[in-house]
Structure formats: C-alpha cells, structure tokens
Amino acid sequence: MMENAVFMSFTFYSTILILKMYVVAIITGQVRLRKKAFANPEDALRNGGLQYYREDPDVERCRRAHRNDMENIFPFLFLGAIYSLLDPSPTVARIHFFIFCVGRIIHTIAYLLRLKAPTRSVAYSVAQLPCFSMALQILLATTPYW
C-alpha cells in the first residue's frame, strides 16, 4: 500500500478531512459552552442548571455543518479507497481528492461563518463532482463482474 501513490494521496486528503471534522466538533462544543446550551441535563446541571438544557440556533448550525460532513465525507472515504485500487492516473486522482477536500473546507467555512449564498451551495456542488466521477469509474470497472 505504501507504494501506491494514489492511495497515499487519498490518505493525505482523507486525514485532512477527518481533522476538519474534529475541528467542527470542537467548535460545536465551544459554542455550546459559550451559549450555555447543553444537549444533556447532566451537562446543564454541571454548568449552571437545568435552564441550560436547551437548544440554541448557533449550536444547531454547528451540528448541521457536522452532520453534513458525515453525509458527504463518509461516502468519499469509501469511493476514494475503492477508486485508489483501480490504478487511476496519480495526477487525475490527486485532482479528484484535492477538489473534494477544498470544496468541503469552503463548505464548512461558508456554513459556520454564514457566508452569502450561494457560496455554500457552490462549494457543495463542486465537491460532489469528483465523487460522481469516482463512482462512475468504479461502476464501469466493476460492471463486467456483476
């Protein structure tokens, strides 16, 4: 595996995306603390009382950004790993991985900073292109075996 340049590139970009997801989780926790909006009664009691066992729009925005990451990055991890096994051009593969990674980072920034529309939608759409491309290539490569 360590000699597979495509897989190593995939591993690099996947790790960046996983770290980005950790950052969003940390931001969510920090917003919860700052806004005193806790999801569990025991956390609210520990931080001031049951009145803080509540939802907050800013916390929910962070949670939606994190959920959107899970809905998109997890499929990328599967597609990218399988695509890496198809022996694609290392340059083309790297472009796929780079576009997805940058698109997801921009999407998260647009989500959390409430950037003007359609920034988030464009970032989402651009990031989906390499996923569709990889999925199509996987299907074409595996069609003879179905």
Q: How would you briefly describe this protein structure?
A:
The chain is built from 5 helices and no strands. The protein has 146 residues and is mostly helical. Helix 1 runs antiparallel to helix 3, helix 1 packs parallel to helix 4 and helix 4 runs antiparallel to helix 5.
Model description:
With 146 residues, the protein is mostly helical. Helices cover 77% and strands 0% of the residues. The chain has 5 helices and no strands. The chain has helices at residues 5-35, 41-46, 57-84, 90-112, 119-142. The protein is elongated and about 60 Å long. The chain starts with a helix and ends with a helix. The mean pLDDT is 96.
Whole-number mean pLDDT: 96
| Number of E-type strands | 0
Uncertain stretches of 5 or more adjacent residues: none
State which percent range the strand residues make up. under 5%
What percentage of residues falls in helices of 4 or more residues?
A: over 70%
Radius of gyration (Å)? 19 Å
**Helix/sheet category:** mainly alpha
End-to-end Cα distance, whole Å, is 26 Å
